[in-house]
Amino acid sequence: MKNLIVVLMGGLSGERKISFLTGKACSNALKKKGYKVKELDAKGYFVNELRKLKPRIVFNALHGKYGEDGFVQSILESLKIPYTHSGVFSSGLAMDKELSRSIFEKNKIKVPKYFILQKAYENNLKQKIKNKKIKFPIVIKPINEGSSLGVYICKNEIQFYKNYKKLQKEYDRILVEEYIPGKEIQAAVMGKKALGAIELIPRRKFYDYKAKYSSSAKTKHIMPAPLSTKKYKEVMLLAKKAHNLLGCRGVTRSDFRFFKNKFYLLEINTQPGMTKLSLVPEIANYSGIKFEDLIVWMVKDASSNR
Ligand SMILES: Nc1ncnc2c1ncn2[C@@H]1O[C@H](COP(=O)(O)OP(=O)(O)OP(=O)(O)O)[C@@H](O)[C@H]1O
Ligand SMILES: [Mg+2]
Questions:
Q1: What pTM did the predictor assign?
Q2: Ligand 2: distance of its center to the CA of 172 in Å?
Q3: Largest CB tally within 10 Å, which of 87, 108, 205, 244?
């Protein structure tokens, strides 16, 4: 169909449920703006369906593995269907917290002290922690998940080994890093422009899955983030720098911790949540961009060869 937009959602990752929320919100926004839209679950033989539908553009509303890491993007490249958000390599880099961090560090963006544990090479764990001078609490997480899935803040060795064993069953590479106290600040970039930064104050132990998606968890959102003008500008510049360093496109969201006047970049998300309660729409809205207009901008920004 000549003018059809397919919104890809769902998929195979642990963030499947959240992706449906993102996808439905984006699909509704596009319908409201008069676009012809079809929602498609990126599961099973969805590629056959895409071939049949021949959409003008794919709106990628997937999160996590296969949707945010370059896999779906490479399928869309080979089908020559223009798509939203970042391209194959940028998506892959951003999703891999080890690879993206090495780029951030080389370019003087501060990240927490960290090292990687890989199943086959995990001896000398205690020595590694000592070498890196990482003190408890220690954070462990998979290198390529989202929505805080598999993120554990461990107060001591017992908690560390217990949670590490859990992660080891499912993941090959695990990130071990220092816990950065302080504030949770996230900044959005749209195209070539940093849009703004928000502070999140969870009531739970940290900004985990529930704190992110359940309104009953009552996470406080403060927009704009209450920082000095200088620091607000700095975090916007850092988000833009991270976005550009990885060659990201469309919209991204960078997650920081702010402690002792310094920003530590935790990661950049190339497919940030786009439900009406998500952070990028909230930041955009504050800078005068309505949700529907943000989604339309993303569609207009779509291309192949990204
Ligand atoms: N080193 C750290 N110090 C303090 N808090 C941390 C650290 N690492 C993670 N966290 C907490 O866990 C949350 C999730 O971490 P992170 O952003 O790395 O995971 P994610 O699953 O990729 O998240 P997303 O939903 O943004 O994709 C952070 O927003 C923060 O609240
Ligand atoms: Mg995050």
A1: 0.96
A2: 20
A3: 87
